[in-house]
Design brief:
The protein is mainly alpha-helical. It is built from 40 helices and seven strands. The longest helix has 22 residues. It comes from Geodermatophilus normandii. InterPro entries: AAA_22, Cro/C1-type_HTH, HTH_77, Lambda_DNA-bd_dom_sf, P-loop_NTPase, TPR-like_helical_dom_sf.
Length: about 800
């Protein structure tokens, strides 16, 4: 017991841990600290745990009320052995953080544990880009650790210095030493600190890195000294533990997250806190939540940027702030910030001025890259005009060391990709424009990604489809940047890019975006390129068809057919004719569709184009299904499947398997139908092809209904609709009457309430439903993956016949 009668913290912690039936390892894992730290606390080797650790332990133990109060009381009780051995700075000697730390509570607890653990790091360097909050985090750690070191914590501000030789004298003054004529300041400081248990907090070391060896020597001579440094670059000394301070977490980019969820996102919490400092009446509402979350995303969660923008809510609504971000970021922040942090540009100027001339040139040139890039792209854009290709990697390391470039941690063996915080990229691009280099570099960027898109286009019809789709996914933002440059530059680049990307947009479901770019390309396509123009038109037709815009699709395919006839290009004519056959199929003009299919098939056979022929055979098979000629349909689809397997075209293989499933369904061969649908669905999932994956879910729903499982059928139909809605594709079936009969039968069997429940369940977990259905043939396995806590709504169901007609192509 302590002199105050309060139980020792170690004994209290051990008692509560044992009552919770936890081992030291389990408690440490749940609290986010080391097992060694728990052991030291329980044995009394660390009697004064910092508040973050006490709260983390209480949360991990699941205690509240009186038990939590007991643990906290035992942590703050004073013990004789804890009295300082020497004169330590009082708490008032530390700068007091002006605001509460937001979004880094667990990070702070882990760092405190690292600095106080007997086997922990002697020097921890907090690195990160300017404005990310390194100093703010360091001040929090200093306050928490004030009583964890016998001789306290000393904070040393180094930003005002410009000479590395002044670092040691500045530290000496901070610990209360004065220079002595008979002893060098280094020796005096070493002697003073050799017997001290002290934490030195060295703030802003990045411009004084030449002093790092002297800091290292100080650590070697003072065994109980620990150092916490903040720097945009690591010190590069032995024993250094670098901790990268990342921007605050931002809302996910996929869809609206809603005001209630946004309140728990760290970047949004910081925005709201600073907005309320400026306007106490400000609040997050459903009306402004979308704008605020998008602001935080655009700013990449960079705290200084978020604070500067949030402070303007007294002048501009969130929607106005969103449209004026670049302008607002140039405004001054809080007046009590250092001059170098009064604006975001000022804090980035500080980092920029520390770069070498070659690093500055590379920094500017890479600013045209968006959404991440690899080493090859950096070399292609960065080399030249005084920079050799072989130098680029070392220069990238310099940018990373100054925390201007991000290198995400990847768990696989894929080549590393570098990334930007958007405010940093925009700053670098402003520098590029100021140096009048932007046009030349953007031309090189457009040429680089045009080459990538055209190489990918030739691969998207072969066995490496999935890999090349993933390549285009990774550089989607760079491709958009190149398209945007082409839009303002000349029609040649834009039209070539649009043609190369049309299949990517179609398969990945970027329907509206693809139509927008292809329409722009059509307006600017050189009249000397009729074949390319026909491909643009064909791409527009395919995307319009997927969205259910039959009128536009027909017009585009007819224009493409006219262009093909003018150039007498057999492949163009065959592709446009196949497109017109699809339109006729959706319009239920089956005889006309059959005639167009015969024309298209003949032209593809004459051209000897296996891939085009397989695609046309697929449409011809669908037409025959609709005409009720199922034997003929199966022959066409099986011929197409053989050709697609030869070419390795995964997408076409999947569509043919999918449609063979519909023939099986018509024949009431439900087991074979399910096998075909699942085989197609697995391929669609690999390609992220959602519209046609929805078609497989529709087929599997009808199989489930035939097997007497209406809840499962309804969930699959709901998932199919959800997947179409996600990409803006049509949800209309080819067989509306038969489809409605199926829904009506399912609704009658389980009732309206259960029908709506399972439909909503499918919609809300649409992609999960698809993956589960593709990979779990047993209903019970699928239930375990997607039903979560829901119970079946019951109902006795008998086997039902199912109309075997596909709802999509």
């Amino acid at each position: 017991m302590s002199p105050s009668g309060v139980e020792d913290f170690g004994a209290c912690l051990r008692r509560l841990r044992q009552a919770a039936c936890l081992t030291q390892e389990q408690l440490a894992q749940q609290a986010g600290i080391s097992t060694n730290a728990v052991s030291q606390l329980e044995r009394g080797l660390r009697r004064r745990p910092y508040p973050h650790t006490v709260q983390a332990l209480a949360d991990a133990l699941g205690i509240d009320g009186d038990l939590r109060s007991e643990l906290v009381a035992s942590a703050v009780a004073r013990h004789p052995a804890e009295e300082p051995l020497g004169t330590a700075p009082s708490r008032g000697d530390l700068p007091v953080p002006p605001t509460q730390l937001i979004g880094r509570e667990r990070e702070a607890a882990a760092l405190c544990s690292l600095l106080t653990d007997g086997a922990g790091a002697r020097i921890v360097t907090l690195t990160g880009t300017g404005g990310v909050g390194k100093t703010r985090l360091a001040l929090t750690l200093a306050a928490c650790l004030q009583n964890a070191f016998a001789d306290g914590v000393v904070f040393v501000a180094l930003a005002p210095l410009s000479d590395p030789d002044l670092v040691i004298p500045t530290i000496a003054r901070a610990v209360g030493l004065r220079e002595h004529p008979d002893m060098p300041i280094d020796a005096l400081l070493h002697r003073q600190l050799r017997s001290k248990e002290l934490l030195l907090v060295l703030d802003n070391v990045e411009h004084l890195l030449e002093a790092a060896p002297r800091i290292s020597e100080l650590l070697r001579s003072c065994p109980d000294l620990r150092v916490l440094a903040t720097s945009r670059a690591r010190l590069r000394i032995r024993g250094e533990h670098q901790h990268s301070v990342e921007p605050l977490a931002v809302p996910e980019a996929s869809g609206d997250i809603g005001a209630a969820h946004a309140l728990h996102v760290p970047a949004v919490k910081l925005f709201l806190a600073r907005a309320r400092d400026a306007d106490p009446t400000f609040s997050l509402t459903p009306a402004n939540a979308g704008d605020i979350t998008e602001i935080c995303r655009r700013l990449g969660g960079l705290p200084l940027a978020v604070e500067v923008v949030a402070a303007r809510v007294r002048l501009l609504a969130p929607g106005q702030l969103l449209t004026r971000l670049h302008q607002v970021l140039g405004l001054a922040g809080a007046r009590d910030l250092p001059d170098r942090q009064r604006t975001l540009r000022a804090t980035l100027d500080w980092s920029h001025d520390l770069l070498s001339p070659a690093e500055r040139a590379l920094f500017r040139r890479l600013s045209v890259l968006s959404g991440g890039f690899d080493l090859e792209a950096a070399e292609a854009l960065g080399a030249g005009d005084g920079i050799e290709t072989a130098e680029v990697l070392a220069l990238l390391e310099g940018l990373r060391d100054q925390s201007l470039l991000q290198v995400p941690a990847d768990s696989d063996d894929a080549p590393l990709r570098y990334g930007w915080l958007e405010p940093v990229r925009q700053y670098a691009f402003d520098r590029l424009v100021d140096n009048r280099e932007d046009c030349a570099v953007r031309n090189r960027h457009a040429a680089l990604y045009l080459d990538l898109a055209e190489r990918a286009d030739s691969e998207l019809e072969g066995p490496d489809q999935a890999r090349w789709l993933a390549v285009l996914d990774r550089d989607h933002d760079n491709l958009r940047t190149a398209l945007d440059w082409g839009l303002g530059l000349n029609g040649d680049i834009l039209s070539r890019l649009a043609v190369a990307l049309r299949r990517f947009w179609l398969v990945r479901g970027h329907l509206e975006e693809g139509r927008r770019w292809l329409s722009a390309a059509l307006s600017s396509c050189p009249s000397t390129e009729p074949t390319r123009r026909a491909k643009v038109l064909g791409g527009l037709g395919d995307l319009a068809l997927k969205q259910g815009d039959l009128s536009s699709a027909r017009d585009h395919f007819q224009d493409a057919l006219a262009a093909g006839r003018w150039t007498e290009d057999a492949a163009t004519i065959a592709a446009a004719t196949r497109g017109l056959a699809e339109v006729a199929l959706w319009e239920n003009a089956h005889e006309g569709a059959a005639r167009l299919c015969r024309d298209s098939l003949a032209r593809w056979r004459e051209a000897g184009n296996a891939r085009g022929l397989a695609s046309a055979l697929n449409i011809a098979g669908l037409v025959e299904i609709q005409r009720g000629r199922h034997r003929e349909a199966a022959a066409l689809l099986e011929e197409g499947l053989g050709l697609a397997l030869e070419t390795g075209d995964t997408w076409t293989i999947a569509t043919l398997l999918d449609n063979l499933g519909w023939i099986d369904l018509y024949r009431h061969d439900h087991e074979q139908a399910a096998e075909h649908f699942r085989s197609a669905l697995e391929r669609y999932i690999g390609l992220d092809e959602r519209w046609l994956a929805a078609d497989c879910l529709d087929g599997l729903a009808r199989v489930a209904l035939a097997h007497g499982d209406p809840p499962r059928a309804v969930r699959l139909w709901g998932a199919a609709e959800g997947m179409c809605d996600l990409i803006g594709a049509t949800t209309a079936p080819l067989d509306p009457n038969a489809y409605q009969r199926q829904l009506g039968t399912a609704r009658a069997r389980i009732g309206d309430e259960a029908f709506e429940h399972w439909w909503g369940e499918g919609r809300s977990h649409c992609w999960m439903v698809a993956v589960a259905e593709a990979r779990c043939s047993e209903p019970g396995l699928m239930e375990g993956l997607i039903r979560r806590k829901h119970e079946s709504h019951g109902g006795t169901v008998e086997s039902l016949n199912v109309d075997g007609v596909p709802r999509r192509l």
